[in-house]
Amino acid sequence: MLQEPSTKYRSFAPIPLPDRTWPSKVISAPPMWCSVDLRDGNQALIEPMDGARKRRMFDLLVKTGFKEIEIGFPAASQTDFDFCRELIEQNLIPDDVTVQVLVQCRPELIARTYEALKGARRAIVHFYNSTSTVQRRVVFGLDRAGITDIAVKAAQCVREHADRHPETEWRFEYSPESFTGTELDFAVEICDAVNAVLQPTPERRVIINLPATVEMATPNIYADQIEWFLRHVKNRDCIILSLHPHNDRGTGVAAAELGMMAGADRVEGTLFGNGERTGNVDVVTLALNMYTQGVNPGLDFSNINEAARIAEHCNQLPIHPRHPYVGDLVFTAFSGSHQDAIKKGFAARRDGDIWEIPYLPIDPRDVGRTYESVIRVNSQSGKGGIAYLLERDYGITMPRRLQIEFSQVVQAVTDATGKELSSEQIWSLFQKEFLADDGAYVYGGHQLTSLRDQHEIERLSLKLKCHGQGALLHGEGNGPIDAIVDALGLRFDVLSYEEHSVGTGSGAKAMAFVEITTPARATLFGVGYHENIVTASLLAVLSAVNRALQRGLLDDAMPVATAQG
Ligand SMILES: CC(=O)SCCNC(=O)CCNC(=O)[C@H](O)C(C)(C)COP(=O)(O)OP(=O)(O)OC[C@H]1O[C@@H](n2cnc3c(N)ncnc32)[C@H](O)[C@@H]1OP(=O)(O)O
Ligand SMILES: CC(C)C(=O)C(=O)O
Ligand SMILES: [Mg+2]
């Protein structure tokens, strides 16, 4: 790269429009949408679509709700020509959909284009020539008048053909291609000249499409260009002003949004932004951006995964996992603080609330995705995500301090492996950590009786395997937990106890959580899981004791002989 890039690249000059109005406008209604997947998208593919793939894309576009679809460049390729004929002859174009085709300003190509459209009920003929300073110089070797002449002659040609086929309802679109590299006064001049031939009316408006054929500047410049153009073009009421952004600087969507604020009526783009170089503007992102502002975009992406798989099949190109709204990872939070906030957001949400879940700009369900992948756990994750997965997939609601304790167990594994952990793997870690029966004390059965004369006192007889040897302990207390603490005779206290049922009906089990504290003031949890609530509590105490012993936090002072007593 150059130390001084200004010796090679020029910055874009600002547009003189100090009283611009677009910055304070709000997008409150969708534009007219036109898909150019089958033309601009297709012309950029490594392997252009065959008839079958074109048909699949067309059907998807219709299903999605596009009312204008550019189906190809029939004068350029036989596949496009045949596809056009197939749609018309087999009557495959719904009544409310208008097909559009592209053609250069060349009479023989225009003639062939009308041949392809013969018998269509309604069609848009889209003709273009490049108007930019650089293309005038290097491609055409013509001045402004010469370039205008190409466009005007094409407009005449397009009209004459249309007049010869009144059975079709013709509409026209003209693009001063490379508009963003064209002086604004010349863009207006050439469009006025074309319109003078086409003679649009407010009832039969012409589409004037102002493409950012190559995105050359920040999106505000595009918006200025659109507002400037609309202030100066003749007969605004006879024009549908269309945008056609490309994405060379990665701001195609922003350019389209600001262009709409600047007064555009229509947007041409492609699904997921396929198209020349970095692509055309992505209409899915545009539409869903509107949706998340509460504006119905008029395009339906309720099953965004299906649309993505069809687009990938037709284009033979993958969609990036981080592509807005659709990528495999875009509804996933790996990082701890995000997971914590999402979990709290879901917990606080009530039916009918405005969508306000941190880090999720859209409800994944609105586009046919599930909450399945919202939280995934790796070494960047925290307690919130782990707790969310255990609650969502296994119905386990851990006490907050247990969440903290268990997240350290999970973190140790993710740090060691560097890998993601599935919810199933987290559950098996949980079982290994808290529910395994391989500790020093293994539960073997119990009996609990209330003392006849003192109802609040319970007597526990507890069968154990203690370091591999059978033992029978006895203890008393005002409940099973108190009684087992007494029976064990170890130096710990119970700090907290919680229990909830997991599952419903006859398959429901109790999960008990006991937090103990040791003489050195270490605290740690134990968990018990059993059909019987009392057994679950006893298991939870033993789980905590075993974990404490394992960590050297408790003295295992109990002589086995006494235990057997
Ligand atoms: C920004 C865009 O996306 S524009 C759309 C671009 N899409 C395509 O080009 C895909 C389909 N196109 C094609 O397959 C071919 O270009 C065809 C079949 C239409 C024409 O092919 P060819 O006749 O071989 O010509 P080619 O494309 O090389 O055309 C270049 C010639 O057309 C002229 N030309 C290019 N665009 C236009 C135009 N819009 N109007 C009039 N003349 C044009 C060029 O000045 C050049 O003229 P020259 O031969 O006198 O130097
Ligand atoms: C043909 C035109 C509209 C085009 O695709 C472009 O300029 O990007
Ligand atoms: Mg284009």
TrEMBL record:
It is found in: Cytoplasm. Residues 437-565 are annotated as: Regulatory domain. Transmembrane segments: none annotated. It is an enzyme of class 2 (transferase). Pathway: Amino-acid biosynthesis; L-leucine biosynthesis; L-leucine from 3-methyl-2-oxobutanoate: step 1/4. It comes from the Bacteria. GO terms for molecular function: 2-isopropylmalate synthase activity; acetyl-CoA C-acetyltransferase activity; magnesium ion binding. SMART domains: LeuA_dimer (SM00917). Its EC number is 2.3.3.13. Catalyzes the condensation of the acetyl group of acetyl-CoA with 3-methyl-2-oxobutanoate (2-ketoisovalerate) to form 3-carboxy-3-hydroxy-4-methylpentanoate (2-isopropylmalate). Residues 31-305 form the Pyruvate carboxyltransferase domain. It catalyses: 3-methyl-2-oxobutanoate + acetyl-CoA + H2O = (2S)-2-isopropylmalate + CoA + H(+). This is 2-isopropylmalate synthase. NCBIfam families: leuA_yeast (TIGR00970), PRK03739.1 (NF002991). Coiled coil: none annotated. Gene3D superfamilies: 3.30.160.270, Aldolase class I. Homodimer. Mg(2+) binds at D40, H244, H246, N280. GO terms for biological process: L-leucine biosynthetic process. Its cofactor is Mg(2+).
